Amino acid sequence: MGRRRAGRGAGGGRVRRPAGRSLEAFTEEVGAALRASLEAEAAGDESRPGAAGLPCPLAMWELGHCDPRRCTGRKLARLGLVRCLRLGHRFGGLVLSPVGAQYVSPADRQLVARSGVAVIDCSWARLDETPFGKMRGSHLRLLPYLVAANPVNYGRPCKLSCVEAFAATFCILGFSDLAVILLRKFKWGKGFLDLNRQLLDRYAACSGPEEVLQAEKEFLVSAKESPEEEMDPFDVDSGREFANPNRPQGGTRLSPDSGDSDEHEPAERGPGAEDGAGSGSSCPEDEEEEEEPGRGAEAGTPEKVWKGIRRQQRD
Which among 170, 129, 126 has a CA at the least distance from the CA of 146? Predict the structure, then answer.
């Protein structure tokens, strides 16, 4: 009796973490991580696990809904960038979840710098059977409106893969270098930033989740109300090129480039392929259907061109 319990060391038990770093120190570590990642790529060591360490932990609950060979979250885990969690485990950082109550915002910068980000890798088609109650966290968040660039759900709003969810979170928080590190592991990754640059900049300029929600609403309203621009085929100063509606275009239409990879035509993916949900993974299809010769010629002249011709005839 009266003996003091021996402190838990590194060999067993939990070690209390030191006080959190300042955001300035974390930002410096982010820049160093990007430089290390680029150097590893130049040396050909980017596929080695742990080749580029991150200054904050990344984790995911993986439910096995998608092909592990194509899952973006699994690939990041194989590279040593993401830790897999079991059901029932709690994550102390920011958790991207469909059951979250507020949006990710720059107000979460300190939380992520201290405790990291976790996602839920499940299928969008199987949300009803996903046990969200077993993936516990104190800081559940939603991502605002963004467009997917992964090969399965290219161009579809909100259906992001794991790596896109991680990248979007880091961009909104102002740690875009971390997003670059993750997206560079995928040949289509840069397309996600290109598609969402305007929105990500808007969200990153906000101060809290309410402003992010307002920015999302304003964008959706402006996108809905903006009138569709009419094209006049007789406007020689417009800089556009139009086909002659009186001549067939089948013989002059360029054939599709068979050498393009899936990152150039991701919208042609089969609709049966399922993406990961709530921040799940997306998996590219093995094959693409080639466009049949002559199919493009059947499209004919766009309806807007005919409207312009009829308007010109009336005038």
Answer: 170
Do 154 and 148 form a contact (C-beta atoms < 8 A)? yes
Query: Which residues on neighbouring strands pair with residue 167, listed in sequence order?
Result: none
The band of 241, judged by pLDDT with boundaries at 50, 70 and 90, is: low
**Is-contact 280 120, C-beta < 8 A?**
yes
| Range in 50-54, 59-63, 73-77, 305-309 with the lowest mean pLDDT | 305-309
Confirm if 61 and 87 have CB atoms less than 8 A apart.
yes
Separation of alpha carbons 171 and 150, rounded Å: 17
pTM of this structure: 0.66
Distance from C-alpha of 24 to C-alpha of 128, rounded to nearest angstrom: 41
Angle at alpha carbon of residue 114, lines to 108 and 117, rounded to 5°: 65
Q: 88: which 2 tokens?
A: 């029932």
pLDDT above 80 for 103: yes
| Residue 269: closest CA among 281, 243, 287, 247 | 287
At 264, the pLDDT band (50, 70, 90 cuts) reads very low
Question: Facing residues of 118 across strands?
Answer: 59, 95
User: 59 forms bridges with which residues in the sheet?
Assistant: 83, 118
Distance CA 30, CA 113 (A): 10
